[in-house]
Amino acid sequence: MNTDIxxxxxxxxxxxxxxxxxxxxxxxxxxxxxxxxTTITGISVTVGYLSGIKPNIRGPSMVTGGLIxxxxxxMYAYQNSAGRLMGFFPNDDEVAxxxx
Length: 100
Hints:
mainly alpha
C-alpha cells in the first residue's frame, strides 16, 4: 500500500524538500503561521472559559480549551509550513531562502 501523498498529487510550486523533517518544518514557520497559532489558541481559551457553566469549573475548562487550541494551532501551522516546503502552497520565500 502506497501511503506517500506526493505520489498521487503533483505539486504546483517548486519543491524545496519532498519529505521535510520535523525540525526543518518547524524552523520554516512564518510570522503568519505563528499569528494563526496564537489566534486559534486565544479563541480556544476564551471559548473554554465561557463554556464553563459553573464558576468553579471555568478554570479547568479554560485550560483544556487552551491545550486544544495550542495543539490545533500548531498542527495547522505545521501543515502550512510542510505544504510550502513540499510545493503544494505558494512558496516564493522558501525557494529564495533555500536556493542559496
